Amino acid sequence: MPIVKCPYCGADVEYASGEVVLTCPYCGTSFAIGGEEIERHLMGRVNFSINEIYSIFKSWALRKPETPNDLPLKARIKNYQLNFYPYWVYRVNVTFTYEGYARNILVKGRENETFVISIPANKKMYGTPLQNYEFSLKGKVFFSSHYARKTGGTILNADISEKDAWANAWKTILNRAKAKIKMRGVTGLTLEIQNYNIKDKSFVHIPIYQVTYTYNGGEYPFLADASDARIMYAEIPVGTGFRMLALGGAVASLVAGIIISIIGIQADLPVFAITSFIGFLAIAAYSAYKGLLRKLVSKKFYV
Ligand SMILES: [Zn+2]
Q1: How far away, in angstroms, is 209 Cα from ligand 1 center?
Q2: Among 180, 214, 235, where does a domain finish?
Q3: Residue 36 lies in a domain
Q4: Does some domain include residue 135?
Q5: pTM of the entire structure?
Q6: How many Å lie between the centroid of ligand 1 and the Cα of residue 78?
């Protein structure tokens, strides 16, 4: 493992190759290996214990019709981890102009907007539910490694530099600005940023529980924000009751489709017969799909 001296306390700090922003395990200061200053290092507090998170998760899951009723009784936590994940967060005020068409009429405009953009600072977070996680800086406090250590959490370093994160954030700003105008039904859009002002940039560690629980011999994960108990990602077993109901519905729709089309053919209405058969077949296929799923994957939820 390569070693670098902490610029604040002088201790030798080990790091993994590729990491560019480290948190010194001795004095708790975060610093970039390249020497750039970390202006604002913030963190989310751990406001929920693992037991509180687990009971919030169970009552949240029970609100879904797919969830078996005995989940709270039979599910057990197999293991969990609390990690402080690093993000670069920018609050940017942007003025942009745009041109496009709404119902074939040329429209132009100038807008001003403040965006809060969070960019994951560790490559391991990409391609996971952590990648597009959006959170507000409200309630975030200045980073304390003493506090983080007390919670038993692991602090992850950054292997994406602030410079690379900003290039990423810039693309996100353009996409958000475009999305805002497209929502108004504008097509053929061209957009240009006239000026921007970075209000603040922060390095933020967000505490996230990664939980694996068991139910009837199966294993299922979920992720939850330890600050506000948001369930970021969850896999839930689909109950037998729900599956039987869905499969029964599929069979009933198929039978109804056949009967209606026989009636249609006998009444010499072939178009009616075919279209209603296709309609019932689609409902049957959807119900069968729901009935055959053995687990539900849920990605978005706000407590
Ligand atoms: Zn140090």
Answers
A1: 27
A2: 235
A3: no
A4: yes
A5: 0.84
A6: 35
Compute the distance from residue 149 Cα to the ligand 1 centre, in Å: 15
Residue 247's domain comprises: 241-298
Q: End-to-end alpha-carbon separation of the chain, Å? A: 41
Q: What's the 230 CA to ligand 1 centre distance in angstroms?
A: 33
- For ligand 1, the distance from its centroid to the CA atom of residue 30, given in whole angstroms, is 8
Q: What is the pLDDT of residues 135-193, one digit of tens each?
A: 989 999 999 988 998 999 999 999 999 999 999 999 999 999 999 999 999 999 999 99
Interior angle at CA 290, CA 210 and CA 61, nearest 5:
35
For 283, counting Cβ atoms within 10 Å of its Cβ (0-12 exposed, 13-18 middle, 19+ buried), the class is middle
For the record, the structure tokens of 231 come out as 């369930």
Same domain for 220 and 278, yes or no, is no
Average pLDDT over residues 14-23: 89
| Domain termination residue (choose one: 185, 205, 235) | 235
For ligand 1, the distance from its centroid to the CA atom of residue 259, given in whole angstroms, is: 77
